[in-house]
Design brief:
Largest sheet: 5 strands, mixed, barrel
Distance between the termini: 31 Å
Number of strands: 9
Oligomer: single chain
Mean pLDDT: 93
Low-confidence stretches: none
CATH superfamily: Nucleoside phosphorylase domain
Helix content: 25-40%
Strand order of the largest sheet: 5-8-7-6-9
Length: 270
């Protein structure tokens, strides 16, 4: 793994990727923040040694380096998922690469379904805690101790200081920001009515198919992280409607300007 990481980092540095301060992972339908970046280098995932390739049609599949809000950043325009057939090591490999490039903070976004009935689609939830329902761990492999601690503490996986700043920024910009627990499932099928009821019982406010593996690895790497969920549908088991993927993408786009504000203002404050 160390060898694979080193090869990817060396390649990126040779292609103009400098030393970013902040890493950003962009979720489904959340790519327009790229328009705010002064791009200095970019590379398709399939050209980077040892990188997986994004297979989801609404994930672009590029690593981008440049300047955003006065800071050097590296952005993943599209992420990887277990449901694409990748291992948890594959899914989290880019986090390890970004850390070796130099990032000291990680910002993550995703699209998710609202379990909490007081949350509405088109709104944003700040992730305060999570439930891992992906059936495995990105740290469960031989030799993991060479990359960091094996038994990583997860009592506070999301950085309290960055979370507090995000909440302040939301108030200053009149953004209705929720705060809650994100449950990460494998997918790609959406949940049944019974599964939505189960998720509510165990304490989830939103559900999605990503993010948690990256957060676990960020914590192993001692990398402070903040994560935002754009709520793209309402998961009320008593009034459940068939999934509408175009509407999910549309809802992500509706909330995206607010997410961009939260992230750019947070980066300015660093």
């Amino acid at each position: 793994m160390k060898k694979f990481i080193k090869e990817a980092v060396s390649f990126l540095k040779s292609r103009g990727f400098g030393e970013p301060e902040v890493g950003i992972i962009l979720g489904t339908g959340l790519g327009k923040i790229i328009d705010e970046v002064s791009i200095e280098a970019e590379m398709s995932y399939n050209h980077i040694p040892n990188f997986p390739t994004a297979t989801v049609e609404f994930h672009k599949g590029k690593l981008i380096y440049g300047e955003l809000a006065g800071k050097k950043v590296v952005l993943m325009q599209g992420r990887f998922h277990v449901y694409e057939g990748y291992s948890l090591l594959d899914v989290t490999f880019p986090v390890r690469v970004m850390k070796q490039l130099g990032i000291s903070k990680l910002l993550v976004s995703n699209a998710s379904g609202a379990i909490n009935k007081t949350f509405k689609k088109g709104e944003i939830m700040l992730i305060d805690d999570h439930i891992n329902l992906q059936g495995g761990s990105p740290l469960a492999f031989k030799g993991v101790e060479k990359l960091g601690e094996r038994f990583v503490d997860m009592s506070a996986p999301y950085d309290a200081e960055m979370n507090a700043k995000i909440e302040t920024i939301a108030k200053e910009n009149n953004i209705n920001l929720h705060k809650g627990v994100y449950a990460s499932v494998v997918g790609p099928q959406l949940e049944t009515r019974a599964e939505y009821r189960y998720l509510k019982i165990i304490g989830a406010d939103a559900v999605g198919m990503s993010t948690v593996p990256e957060i676990i690895v960020a914590n192993q790497l001692k990398l402070p992280v903040v994560a935002l969920s754009v709520l793209t549908d309402e998961c009320d088991p008593d009034n459940l409607k068939p999934v509408d993927i175009p509407d999910i993408i549309a809802q992500a786009g509706k909330a995206e300007p607010q997410m961009i504000t939260l992230f750019t203002e947070l980066i300015k404050s660093m």
